[in-house]
Fold:
Amino acid sequence: MSLNTQLSLLFARLAWPSGLARERACVAIAHLLLDPGSSEATKSYLIKYLQSQPLENLAGTGLLPLLYARERDSAATEATEAYVGELVSAVGKRSILSWLLVREIDEALAGKVEDWLVCSGSVPYDFAPSPFFEKHATAFLPPAYDDWARLIDELLGIPFKKQWAYEWALLVEKIGAKPSVEPLRFWVEAKPGGERFHAVDMELSDVYSSALLRAFAWATSIGAMPPETAIGLSARTCPIDLDLWQLQPGRRPTWWPVVKETNGPIEIAPAEILSQIEDLWRRQSSGNSTWLGRDWVLAEASGQAHLSNIVYDLEICGVFQKCHGPDAPNLDEIADWYREDDGTNEVKARCPSPLRLRGGVLYAELSDSIQRFGDWTIAPASGFTESYGTNPRWQYWRMYRKLWLPAPYISKYPIMFQSNENEMSVYDLERTIGSWRDWTDGIGETMTAPLPPATGQYLVLKRDLVEQFAADTGSTFCWVCRLVAFHRERSDGE
Structure:
């Protein structure tokens, strides 16, 4: 098979419905750009791809391999410098998203965002939105996008959603797309046993997304939407965080509690898992935790611990605890509070680029984080962050388990964080104070609801930092552990 044929098949994957297939295609193209034997042919094909894309969303996707290549290999920046301007000029369908991506490559090449505001002009007064558009917008795109459109209508007093529908109708006609729910039945509906695809973008999803980018451009061009708002909302259409993309998930660590499948009449997995947790705690407490190193403490973790007819998912919540009386709390309530999506235990961060989860943790008072359960008061040692500027659904397992950072009050200095290939490093003004990592263990394009993905993640913090905070507050650092079981009654059942 010729290289040109191989490239044709590979680039076709950039529009494949599966997000994982698109992501792998981007990475493969990036490696071809870095290979001296294929870089010239790949560059030429990428230029043709960018010139021929009829949709803004796919034009943005075409820029991602170049970004990945330049950040993956420091030598690639110099190697691609000769033709990066040619690639940027080849972007046929400009949008605020493409401007953001080009700005990450070269600010001078990006120029002003106003030069990337492409739309079809204001929607005609007598235009009637397609019933299909209205009915299925939340099926082909995450529902949040439709919520934004309604909110913009209300807050800005402009026919934003009607403009979105107008741009959608023009794009459907231009590319000859057929409005149909048939793709939803294959890619979105659950299969027997509850299995379903995740991170799916069908042809109409790309049309909806591209039309939305054009509507953002329209709202900005008429002066109704501040450019900063349009930039932030456009970033949310990017399917990957550029920094998290470089952070490679590893293998399940050898110390993570896990048991093999048991076929006996008595289910012994929970007892074995809990026994391993107790052993981890004893070794950590004694300072002999060779599994982490003497200087580190496990502050938070979650991951799959056993897979058979019963799936066990383990959660470890690091907290600072004080006891004020005899009333013992419901530990399940503590675990719920620690992990629920209500924002109670969220660590907020400020990130300079909306395409990168990298920056500083926003300070929060300890008193605002303390919760009382029975006669205990609890302060979390860590919290999850959702300070994504993008919607990184190509790495959906990370959105499920979330990324965890130290509680902002645990250090007397401001806390910053940044990814490299192996970890998310957390540091203050003096030193590195923490590290977050994750692993995949058989992750695929599909998940079975409500099972968690076959992945895991954990956050470690410097031991002296944890011990000093506990001493200063008169508290005790401990783990609240929860083992969640999912039972499948039949091999083909839910």
